[in-house]
Design brief:
about 260 residues; alpha/beta; Rossmann fold; seven-stranded mixed β-sheet; three-stranded mixed β-sheet; 10 strands; globular; binds S-adenosylmethionine
Length: about 260
């Protein structure tokens, strides 16, 4: 994989950005009922998930838990993980004491047995990761055979075209800008990669790949008349429905062997 941090200043940004602990409440409030998350991204993931009754689902990067709540309401047995303790605290308040919630960084090995889940959802989290290989290998490992990973990311064509000057499309590059949350700037850093790098990373981890570019929930047309057309006519996020292929041990992704498991897991 080609990874190109754009300059020294940007490397400094990588360290201080994406601090969800510092803006957990603002992010959760802003995305609870908005057009892009509540009427486009979450309904699309739920639609791809379909009937989840009785399924064991890992919500990877669960944030404050809106997707976990919706999956649980549909009958799934949900476990949520996230790198931000503050986001998980909000999830705990929403979901109650019974829900399994753990602080876990998706760049690390996952504290779950092989085949522990029927499905994994990874909603708007993979684009924070520079290297998808080890993470996808772990997500594949904790899925049962034939299980599904449903993932949403910033659409690679949008992440490419919003930069001026445009980055090298075929490289994997990071970019940084400020979100404005509750009147305060929040520095964010994302990793964009070409479409083929996404599909190849999924395939290399042992997934069969299906891409989806869904429309927003039709109910949003009346609720957000000014912005609905723009969202329904232009790319925003890209969705993947990935099936854990039936692999023999010899075919399992190499990354699994490379991960060093901490004591006690
Ligand atoms: C855009 S939010 C989406 C949250 C949730 N999926 C939702 O749809 O509301 C991204 C989430 O990913 C989490 N995150 C970012 N990098 C992560 C990492 N390396 N490991 C685990 N979680 C991470 C953040 O803490 C944040 O809660």
């Amino acid at each position: 994989m080609t990874s190109v941090p754009e300059d020294r200043a940007q490397q400094a940004d990588l360290r201080r950005s994406n601090d969800y602990d510092s803006f957990a409440g603002s992010y959760a409030a802003e995305t609870e009922n908005n057009l892009v998350n509540a009427y486009y991204e979450r309904p699309a993931v739920l639609d791809l998930a379909g009937d989840v009754t009785g399924r064991r689902i890992l919500d990877a990067g669960c944030g404050s838990g809106p997707l976990s709540a919706a999956l649980r309401d549909r009958g799934a047995v949900v476990t949520g993980i996230d790198a931000s303790a503050a986001m998980l605290e909000l999830a705990r308040r929403r979901l109650g004491d019974e829900m399994a919630l753990h602080v876990v960084d998706l760049r690390d090995p996952l504290p779950f047995d092989d085949g522990a889940f029927d499905d994994v959802v990874a909603s708007l989290v993979l684009h924070y990761l520079q290297d998808w290989g080890p993470t996808l290998a772990e997500l594949r490992r904790v899925l049962k055979r034939g299980g599904r990973l449903i993932a949403s990311v910033d659409h690679p064509f949008v992440a490419y075209t919003i930069r001026d000057p445009r980055p090298e499309y075929f490289a994997t590059t990071s970019y940084t800008f400020d979100w404005r949350l509750n009147g305060h700037p929040a520095p964010m850093t994302f990793w964009r990669r070409p479409l083929h790098a996404m599909t190849e990373a999924f395939a290399a981890a042992g997934f069969r790949v299906s891409i989806s570019e869904p429309q927003p929930d039709p109910a949003a047309r009346e609720l957000f008349p000014d912005d609905f057309h723009g969202l329904s006519a232009r790319p925003c996020f890209l969705f993947f429905q990935l099936t854990a292929a039936d692999l023999t041990n010899a075919q399992l992704p190499q990354e699994i062997g490379k991960l060093k498991r901490p004591q006690g897991w």
